[in-house]
Amino acid sequence: MRRVNEAVREVVSAHIAEDLSDPRIGFVTVTAVETSTDLRHAHVFVTVLGDDDERADALEGLDSARGYLQAQVGSELRMKRTPTLTFAYDGSTDRGLRISELLDEAGEVGTHEEPAGEGPAGEELRP
């Protein structure tokens, strides 16, 4: 299934980048594909550069291009069935960025320097 998912991801990603001229579809990256075991459905997870409105527009554009993308998957991959594609936003990138921000903030709060020549209790340090 991993090979099938990766193959579908490659085909869909390539055709989104090269063939689609829908202005709603801006900077879209296909992050993952999960295909059902019976090959009838494939959930395509994407990230979109932009705000919530641009994300919604991109997902609408991808939904409208679904038939074309399914046809490309069917013609390029030799599979028993051509899966029905559904598109969903992958929020893992947003969560990862938020975690990085929190870690950076925690690092800034936790790193304060001791005055030179004094230990934590005001004791003089000797070299």
Topology:
Layout: H1 2-18, E1 28-35, E2 41-48, H2 52-64, H3 66-76, E3 84-89, H4 92-110
Structure description:
This protein is α+β, with helices and mostly antiparallel strands and 127 residues long. It has one domain: K homology (KH) domain (GMP Synthetase, Chain A, domain 3), CATH 3.30.300.20. It is 47% helix and 17% strand. It has four helices and three strands; from the N terminus they run αββααβα. The chain has helices spanning 2-18, 52-64, 66-76, 92-110, and strands at 28-35, 41-48, 84-89. It has a three-stranded mixed beta sheet. A hairpin with a 5-residue loop joins β1 (28-35) and β2. The longest helix has 19 residues, at 92-110. The model has no long low-confidence stretch (mean pLDDT 86).
